């Protein structure tokens, strides 16, 4: 009986140790402290919704959405993009995930016209989707999924603005 009381006392006293006395293994500590924006984005409701609807991984969808939002940013006025960003609070995190590519010599020869801007945007989306392993045929479906999500969450105006920013497609 005394042995079980002593064992119980030792067990209970270990629970009373301050939390700072517990040392986690370095590998676990580093995993807990990592803040990976792709992982954060994968937890986003829009990303989860789109991944389910499109049958793609959340990482792949995050990259695709990032590319779409980057192009929308490039093609919208500051005011319109601000309204779109209000509907998608993680917008800056998405934009940070967007792949970067240099402008091709052909599209840069077209100058700063609307046609040039549209060609550069279309070229960017093709390259971004290819680098992410997303078939370019999925682009219209991804855009439709995002606008549907915005519509169903009370942001019909933002859905219209997104379509406006991608009207060259």
Give a verbal description of the structure:
The protein is mainly alpha-helical and 169 residues long. It has one domain (37-165). 72% of the residues lie in helices and 0% in strands. It has 11 helices and no strands. The protein has helices at residues 2-15, 26-33, 37-42, 45-54, 58-75, 78-87, 91-97, 105-109, 114-132, 139-152, 156-165. The chain starts with a helix and ends with a helix.
Features:
169 residues; mainly alpha; 11 helices; 72% helix; globular
Briefly summarize what is shown.
The chain has 11 helices and no strands. It is mainly α and 169 residues long.
What's the helix and strand layout?
Layout: H1 2-15, H2 26-33, H3 37-42, H4 45-54, H5 58-75, H6 78-87, H7 91-97, H8 105-109, H9 114-132, H10 139-152, H11 156-165
Helix pairs in contact: 4-5, 4-10, 5-7, 5-9, 5-10, 5-11, 6-11, 10-11
Distance, first to last CA:
80 Å
Element-level helix/strand string? HHHHHHHHHHH
- What is the count of structural domains? 1
Helical percentage: over 70%
Give the overall shape, derived from the CA principal axes.
globular
């Amino acid at each position: 009986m005394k042995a079980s009381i002593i064992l119980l006392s030792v067990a209970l006293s270990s629970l009373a140790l301050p939390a700072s006395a517990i040392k986690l293994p370095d590998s676990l500590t580093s995993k807990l402290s990592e803040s990976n924006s792709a992982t954060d984005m994968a937890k986003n409701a829009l990303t989860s919704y789109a991944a389910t609807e499109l049958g793609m991984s959340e990482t792949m969808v995050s990259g695709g959405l990032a590319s779409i939002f980057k192009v929308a940013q490039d093609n919208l006025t500051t005011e319109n993009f601000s309204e779109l960003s209000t509907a998608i609070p993680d917008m800056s995190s998405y934009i940070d995930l967007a792949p970067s590519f240099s402008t091709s010599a052909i599209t840069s020869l077209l100058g700063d016209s609307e046609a040039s801007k549209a060609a550069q945007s279309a070229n960017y989306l093709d390259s971004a989707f290819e680098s992410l392993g997303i078939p370019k045929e999925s682009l219209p479906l991804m855009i439709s999924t995002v606008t549907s999500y915005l519509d169903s969450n009370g942001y019909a105006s933002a859905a219209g603005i997104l379509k406006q920013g991608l009207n060259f497609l």
